[in-house]
Specification:
Oligomer: single chain
Radius of gyration: 15 Å
Number of helices: 7
Strand content: 15-25%
CATH superfamily: Isochorismatase-like
Helix content: 25-40%
Structural class: alpha/beta
Number of strands: 6
Distance between the termini: 13 Å
Strand order of the largest sheet: 3-2-1-4-5-6
Largest sheet: 6 strands, parallel
Length: 189
């Protein structure tokens, strides 16, 4: 865990979309709605401090190849332009906040997120959202490889099971990311 204030932080809110958070959606995560409050607290703090914020939304374009994602998930994916691809209204991005659409697990793969952060002198990325063991973990590992310091907020992330969530956090804590809860994170900003 970082011992003092975070150096030049930015927030990456991963895939907080209706596809994962709407109880009627195919990929609904039962623990997803419970993290919205913590994500919102973190988001509001970043906004008040004027710190950079990036939202990701996982979405594929109809008619374009889905690659390994489509093969793995049998094309049961969020599609661009459909309601499930929208970020939930409780976390609506504001003007000036970057929103990147991604078709891979990482927030940084084939998106403008990394150049955006580097251009703002960001050194630390705070990551929250869904799914802990897929997009959050892959984004944290990718951030590490980009020489950004990842901080993953344990109680502002969710996935399909407690076991996947805890295993992912355990793995990240051993060499890739600092793992903190919302209260600790807010004290470090």
């Amino acid at each position: 865990m970082p011992k003092k204030r975070l150096k030049k932080p930015a927030l990456v809110v991963v895939d907080m979309q209706r596809y994962f958070l709407d109880p009627e959606a195919d990929a609904f995560l039962k623990d997803g709605p419970a993290i919205v409050g913590n994500v919102k607290r973190i988001l509001n703090t970043f906004r008040k401090k004027g710190l950079p914020v990036i939202f990701t939304r996982h979405a594929h374009k109809k008619g374009e190849p889905t690659g390994q994602m489509g093969r793995w998930w049998n094309d049961k994916l969020p599609w661009d332009g459909e309601a499930g691809s929208e970020i939930v209204s409780a976390l609506e991005p504001l003007g000036g906040e970057m929103v990147v659409t991604k078709a891979r697990y990482s927030a940084f793969e084939r998106t403008a997120a990394a150049p955006y952060l580097k251009g703002r002198g960001v050194e630390t990325v705070v990551i929250c959202g869904v799914m802990t063991h897929l997009c959050v973990e892959t984004s944290a590992r990718h951030a590490f490889l980009l020489d950004l310091e990842p901080v993953v907020v344990s109680d502002a992330c969710a996935t399909q099971s407690k076991e996947h969530h805890e295993a992912s956090l355990l793995n990240l804590a051993h060499g890739f990311a600092h793992i903190v809860d919302t209260k600790t994170l807010l004290s470090l900003l």
